[in-house]
Design a protein that fits this description.
The protein has one domain (2-94, 102-134). Helix 2 packs antiparallel against helix 3. The mean pLDDT is 94. With 136 residues, the protein is an all-alpha fold. It has five helices and no strands. The chain is elongated, with a radius of gyration of 18 Å. Keywords: Membrane, Transmembrane, Transmembrane helix.
């Protein structure tokens, strides 16, 4: 997710319509299977650790990280995936006449930034929980 904020989004914003549609098709088929799997597995592991770890502090931190990841996955499913589906349904050779109004790039960028920040916070909370667990 961080790579999209740092490099992919600025590059996509600079692309003309046709190249943007083609690039979205290319990238979505690669990022989509990987990111949901990583987020879901991490969330499941956090939930398992809530029940396995005996200490309250790490358990609470794992619960917080799981909650953050649930929000990340919800944003992906409710906001970013529908935008990606819309863009991949477009014909790169036939730009819609009202594209300036319908261009979803800034909306997608905002939701992607939100979920990236939340995912990074979840990563930090998981690291904190692991450190607290090791320190016991």
């Amino acid at each position: 997710m961080l790579s999209t904020v740092i490099g992919v989004v600025p590059w996509m914003l600079a692309q003309p319509y046709d190249r943007y549609v083609v690039a979205t098709r290319f990238l979505w088929s690669r990022y989509d299977p990987f990111m949901p799997i990583v987020n879901a597995l991490t969330c499941v592991l956090d939930v398992v650790l809530i029940f396995v770890v005996p200490a309250a502090v790490p358990r609470t931190l794992f619960a917080a990280a799981a909650g953050l990841l649930l929000v990340v996955m919800t944003i992906s499913i409710v906001k970013n995936v529908p935008i990606n589906r819309y863009v991949t349904s477009l014909d790169p050779a036939a730009r819609p006449p009202d594209w300036e109004r319908r261009d979803p790039r800034m909306r997608w960028r905002g939701w992607n930034l939100t979920r990236t920040v939340l995912a990074l916070v979840a990563f930090g909370v998981n690291a904190w929980a692991a450190t607290a667990l090791i320190s016991m």
